[in-house]
Amino acid sequence: MTTTDSRTATDAPVDLGAPLRGADLHRAAAPLPVLVGPDVRNRVDRGREFLRTVLADDDRPVYGAKTGFGALIGYAGRADPADQSDNTLAHLGAGQGPDLPADVVRAALLVRAWSLAQGVSGVSAHVLDGLAAMFATTFVPAVPRYGSVGASGDLIPLAYATQALRGRGHAYLAGERMPARDALRLAGLVPLSLDGRDALALVNGTSVTTAATALALDSVRASHRAVRDLTCLLVDVVGADPGFLDPRLIAAYRHPGAATVADHMRETLAGTAPSGSRALQEPYSIRCSPQLLGAAEDALRYVDGVVAADLAGVSDNPLFFPDDDLVAHGGNFFGQPAAFAADVLAMVTASLGNLAERQLDLLVDPARNTGLPPMLAAGPGRQHGLQGVQLATTAFVAEIRRGTLPASTQSLPTNLHNQDVVPFGTQAALRAHDLAELLRLLCGSLALGLRQAVHVGGRRPTAPRCAELLDALVEAIPPVDPDRPLDADVRRAAEVVTGARC
């Protein structure tokens, strides 16, 4: 048996008693050991016992355990605990649209499990045991995309996930969609039994929003690094002067992100030799790149903080504090922080994507690329090089721009004005997740262009680190000579420069 000390990071279980990390959410896409340790079990059991005490007191109201839900809080709920679970979940089966990506759903359930494991939600310990058992398999609830406003948590999507864990609705097993009861049986899982408080705690949090934002953040950060490095490769291949990165110039700008980015770019370009054939001042897509990428870095640091707080926080209502004999009814299920953060991610994605597209446009234009053939074609006219790829990047940028309308400003009252303000963080997060993939493809398109530029006469990079990046691309992708479909090459180049899987 492998000892804990010898386990790799990917083999080690996610301990619900330890801090949750963004990397854990990526690991949740595949079968994953999840540990419900003694400390977690003790605090969850203690919270559960306190809930029993409160429920036995007829004079103490507890939302969702003794009452109806949402705007119907003024009415009594069902007396039987199992019936109250059905009462919680059945009416939320109103989602529509395609199923969410499997990685988002499983990451969301890991976020939900960690929140419940803090012991202030009053859930049964067997809920965590059931979630841990699910993570050890390929089981993924089928969750429709549309329906959440992200205000009382992600009620509708999490209700579908919870119903699948109970054997209702649909789920995926090893990528195959089927009735959830069949998927549970084939996975060796037992349908989860819940009472009203268990059911409400599973749905009353912003876990889908948090998970999608965290996954999008990691992808955008990888693309940000890629655009930074590809900008350096572009500078070297066309023979531009890196004087726009002078540390005294950047220090005078006074923005910390720009300083960080410029430091990295100077390191990457160390050893480069300008060709002397370029104009005194480069186009903004080169000359202003540390300022643009630096502003993106500053914005991403803000998103880092929001995601870290969401992963470390409890999203639920009400919360139970045995030490203080307190049942606290409030709004910790309100996803405004992630809504703002995901909207910021969309804006960053649009700016980074626009930069990558403009740099590719420069690279394929013989008027600006130091005399390389148009469209980087090996034989212009007989061949067309990057012409199709450049057209596609225009479409990608347009699609990203179309998706940058802030969701967090679109509040609409709902639920008989109980939810009279809502953040729409779920929409913002899922959109950011979508746009992050388009940004990856833009990175791959630029990378493919730089690989082709050297093939059709561009100089080999003079900076060693730029040469290493080019060599990685050359090893992965043959030159476009003669023409061929380049869709797979773009995805492969994106994988090389971002480190993400296609």
What does this structure look like?
It is a single chain. The chain has helices spanning 22-27, 38-55, 81-89, 102-116, 125-135, 155-165, 180-187, 196-203, 207-238, 247-253, 256-268, 284-287, 289-312, 336-364, 387-402, 425-455, 464-476, 487-498; strands spanning 14-15, 34-35, 96-99, 140-141, 144-146, 170-173, 176-179, 319-321, 326-328. It has 502 residues and is mainly α. It has two domains: 4-205, Fumarase/aspartase (N-terminal domain) (Fumarase C, Chain B, domain 1, Orthogonal Bundle), CATH 1.10.275.10; 212-498, Fumarase C, Chain A, domain 2, CATH 1.20.200.10. The strands form four sheets. A three-stranded antiparallel β-sheet has the order 4-6-7. A two-stranded parallel ribbon has the order 1-2. The longest helix is centred in the middle third of the chain and has 32 residues, at 207-238. 50% of the residues are buried.
